[in-house]
Amino acid sequence: TMQCWVIDICPIRAVAAIRKDVLMRVNGGTFLTLSNVSSAAFVKELSDAGRGVVVTQAFPPPASGVLAVSREFQKLADEYKFPKSYTAMEGYVYARVVVEALRRASANLTSETIVKALEADRKFDLGGYTDGFSRTSSTGSTVIDLTIVTAGGRLRRWRLFSSRGAGRAEVAGL
Predict the structure, then answer these.
(1) Could you tell me how far CA 111 lies from the centroid of its own chain?
(2) How many angstroms separate the CA atoms of 50 and 58, rounded?
(3) Is the pTM of this model over 0.70?
(4) The pLDDT of residue 83 is above 80
(5) pLDDT of residue 136
(6) Distance of CA 139 to the CA centre of its chain
(7) Burial class (CB in 10 A: 0-12, 13-18, 19+), 72
(8) H-helix or E-strand spanning residue 149
């Protein structure tokens, strides 16, 4: 049997089509894609071919109660009745960073003061999830989670990697 690794960086339909094609040609293999496709639409498009697909995540798990930022997100999702998804969590985190940058920019709001506030080499601690930028780095967070699509079509947290931990990985049952 042939071993197969596929790392795919495409829109939802293209990723799903490639995954299905690979499964028809190769029995098994590892398929990895980026978080820009980690939506319910992606899992639906994959249908049965989704099981075992690994999806990177750059944001905290939306269903976890471990981090304060996730708990705050869940409270808002319940109150305003929006889905608890990685996509929604990403929007929530970005909104929090923008609000904090506006606060740090003070009363004299200009594009320059906002950029200066974002690049001030100070981290944005959003409740256990840290994001930050500088004049030389626009990376934001240094943490990447890996999720895996289950047989039931859900994203389950699988591993946590941090560039600060030099390859630190842990099984995450959060």
Answers:
(1) 27
(2) 20
(3) yes
(4) yes
(5) 72
(6) 13
(7) middle
(8) strand 143-149
Please name which of 28, 86, 97 lies closest in space to residue 59, comparing C-alpha atoms.
86
pLDDT single digits (tens) 91-142: 999 898 888 889 888 878 899 998 888 887 677 788 888 777 777 777 777 6
Cα–Cα distance measured from residue 4 to residue 23, given in angstroms and rounded to the nearest whole number: 10
- Per DSSP, helices labelled H in the chain are 12-25, 40-46, 68-80, 86-104, 111-118
Q: Is the Cβ–Cβ distance between 57 and 146 less than 8 Å?
A: yes
Q: What dihedral angle (degrees, nearest 10) is formed by the CA atoms of 83, 37, 32, 147? A: -10
Which strand (E) or helix (H) includes residue 51?
A: none
Q: What is the mean pLDDT of the chain?
A: 78
Token pair of 43 as six digits: 């899992």
